Amino acid sequence: MGPTLTEVNDSPAAPSGTLPPSLSVELRAELTAFRRDLHRHPETARKEFRTTEQVKARLEQAGLTPRVLPGGTGLVCDIGADDPARGRLALRADLDALPVPDTKTVEYRSTVPGTAHACGHDVHTTVVLGTGLVLAELDRAGRLPRPVRLLFQAAEEVMPGGALDAIKAGVLDGVERILAVHCDPKVEVGRIGLRQGPITSAADRLLLTLDGPGGHSARPHLTTDLVMATAKLASELPLVLTRRADPRSGLSLVWGRIQSGHAANVIPQHAELEGTVRCLDLASWHDAPDLVHEVIDQVAAMYRAKCEITYQRGVPPVVNEAVSVELLRDAMAGCFGLHAVEDTEQSLGGEDFSWYLEKVPGALARLGVRPEGDTAKRDLHQGDFDVDEGAIGVGVELFTAAVLLS
Predict the structure, then answer these.
(1) pTM of the model
(2) Most exposed of 196, 203, 343, 382 (fewest Cβ within 10 Å)?
């Protein structure tokens, strides 16, 4: 049974025949309930078994044939027959939640201790699902202009990201272009943010382990003062990098964990520093590991500390392709007017959607989820994160219009 749709939108902002059917009250209510169910039952990376099954069951109810990806989490679903003249347009969502306690008091608050959809992936999943339901009905009516692939990906929140697993499983085979949205609490509901070129940054992880012989704090000159060496690396390394890298690259090192020692009068034998390296520029991202290694070795040598460096590659920047950006711009303007599209800045956040864009052209839009008139400063990855659920319908109409325009 397909979703109920209202009459085709007749807005003059786009050519006739290119606008999606508006969502019915019934479908909007269903999608809101679906998102809330996911929100109550969040699952972290590569554990999204229930989420995968919920999406699969609803797509099958709509007469579609989704395929679960290897490992049992994530799935793909094709709509429309293959077209030898053009590849599929892929719409991507991510399924995983974060290991963050849900601090909200809403009735759909997470029921899983220490886990919450604090980044909006439940919204992304619901938007792509809802778009699939609409497109399936258009396909049955002979109104789908091109073949589409729905992609529900696991493990976006872990480096280097589940996108690599999905690509390895062949999800991009036959795909010509790929689109995605990401919730943005700085953008008001009913609007999207777009940017041509880099829209996120590269994000890597860095772990330093420092070792020395240890000793008495009364005689630091006879040993390696490991706490001092660690403190110097923690303070000097981010500063030195800003003078060794092109300032335009936005190379940034921020520590998230520092650990050493157990007593005030004992110089420890072991210390650890852990943080993230972020970079706005793709070329500088490729050079970052060598530069970081060089600076660490120089600082550690000053204090005779033995330092082991674990530099984990994360994700490159998401680089939006121009044609795909304009497709999203035209689709949003056609549905909601030109005022509904705003320029957005490049973020220092990472997103593994970037791996898809190294294979095929595409773009990611920032989906407004801030309630109208709300002036509070909100961010992602916080336990009280929530959205204006009107964003779900906006995302569905945006994606549907993009399919019809492409």
Answers:
(1) 0.87
(2) 343
